[in-house]
Amino acid sequence: MNNGNANNDNKDNNNYVWPVRGDNDALRLFSFENIYRQYLKCRKNKRGTVNALKFEMNCEENLIDLQRELIDRTYYPSRSVCFMATKPKLREIFAADFRDRIVHHILADYLERIWEPKFIFDSYACRKKKGIHLGVKRLQGFLRKVTRNGSRQAFYLQLDIKNFFMSIDKDILYQIIADKIRDESILWLAGILIYHNCTKDYVLKGDMGYLRKIAPQKSLFYTMGRKGLPIGNLSSQFFANLYLNKLDQFVKHRLKCGYYLRYCDDFVMLSEDRDKLIKWKAEVERFLVERLKLRLNEKRQSLQPVSNGINFLGYIVRRNYTLVRKRVVNNLRSRLSDFERKLIKKDHSPYVKVIYDYPALERLRATLASYFGHFKWADSYRLQMSLIKRYGFLRRFFSLKDGRITENYRVPGNIPSLRLQYRYFKTRFSEDILLFQVGSHYEFYEDDSDVAGMLGLRKIHKSSARNVKYGFPARHEKAFIDRIKSCGRSITVVGEEDRYLTRVKERLPKYSLVFQQ
Fold first, then answer.
1. What integer is the mean pLDDT of 167-195?
2. Which burial class, exposed, middle or buried, applies to 418 when counting CB atoms under 10 A from its CB (0-12, 13-18, 19+)?
3. How far, CA to CA in Å, does 233 sit from each of 4, 53, 191, 357?
4. Phi, psi (degrees; rounded to nearest 5) at 128
5. From residue 205, how far is each of 43, 79, 96, 219, 387 by CA, in Å?
6. Cis peptide before 359, with omega less than 30 degrees from 0?
7. What local confidence, expressed as pLDDT, does residue 503 receive?
């Protein structure tokens, strides 16, 4: 089977072609070539983790050992790491060991080649070339079609499966695979991963108190019988799609619902006929109970006119536009307020002290990039402008334009001289008096008589090749800052780092004192 859709790690894998399935599938699946190929895919986003680095230290030997265990059927998963995720809601995550992740990739890649052509188009979770944003775009297209671009009324039915991952029946899941696969080695591996109980041997990271707060029906520790898959593994994500493919086929081919799409266990059906949606709901509920041993979540059901907008995947989707869900915006506001308290100190009246905490700034930049990346798929220009206005401190650290986030505090690496570094910061902090450190002094490179008079500095007539106009020793920093503050001017202090950028040392802002009028 052709590997055109595979997510490859490097160019050597781009042209990898799987032979047609047959009796020797397990030999090809457990070949060193394939195991190494899956290892490259697995390490793509995990190379900096401790477990990945440990594995890579003896990579060839470890891969050979893994191959032998798979061929001999002596492989068994290692301990998982259990930790709690708090956003968007509290839930337990079981992260498999790096070695086991390779095995997940091996099996998921093989099964995906068989089932991907069988999956319906409108299943969007954890599939290549799918995802949240394509699902939202597709739903908006459905809204236009079912309403004939707004010329008629239509309704939507949105349903959710109760405690989905904890309710998956392992026997049913295994039988779905066994109905298509005949190779005993592949069935053995599928059984190992499906029936492995990660709660029997795990390492807990984080606060045990969070674990106690999780409702029993949402935890693998309380599942009864052969139920439940761990959240956090690639294999679980694929198995979830495989399990609910039965539902997808039922809705599309038995109920004949033309406007249906699903993301994980959240799915939407559209129709002009409200009564038909009510009937479909009853049939879906019966199918889930009888065929998949699942139940609908009664608290997360909605049957309304599409004109009300559909709350789906973090957006409010309407026929002509899309809005960001209020909960997503509120989450961002909460996080920005936390950053503001950490970076902006307001107890220096009439000044505000700006703290350049670089680890915190990197987390802030990542947070903005994530949320603004989410916003760009909606009609959110006014929302973004209102956030930037409300949290004005962001402009102190970043330039936010056209969805791009540029750091104001870090000099580009291609600036080759001290004077150009100085000019860069003067441009970024144009309203402030800039104290620019060079060795044991603060230097000024502009002939500014007002600043010189304020600080009581004399012009340097015989300066170095840097053409310094004024300066003072860094040990007198506090005294000179007090003079500036007495004049009601804002200040940014730029300190010298040990790291070099090209021929000169890097310089970064240490703090700013912003005068509040």
1. 94
2. buried
3. 24, 19, 15, 34
4. -65, 140
5. 22, 13, 13, 16, 35
6. no
7. 80
Token pair listed for 501: 């950028």
Side-chain-facing half-sphere of 424: CA atoms under 13 Å: 20
Residues 6+ apart with CB under 8 A from 60: none
Which H/E stretch holds residue 193? helix 184-195
Helix (H) or strand (E) holding 189: helix 184-195
Q: What does the DSSP assignment read for 427-474? A: HHTTTSEEEEEETTEEEE-S--HHHHHHHTPPP-SS--TT---EEEEG
Output the CA–CA distances (angstroms, integers) from residue 54 to 43, 47, 97, 265, 310, in the order listed: 12, 10, 11, 36, 47
Instruction: Pick the closest to residue 39 from 8, 69, 68, 70 (CA basis).
Output: 8
Residue pair 109/1 in contact (Cβ under 8 Å)? The answer is no
Overall residue count recorded for the chain in this entry? 517
Helix 326-343 to helix 358-375 angle (10° resolution) is 160
- Give the tens place of pLDDT for each residue, 98-146: 999 999 999 999 999 999 999 999 999 999 999 999 999 999 999 999 9
Rounded distance between C-alpha atoms, residue 14 and residue 257, angstroms: 37
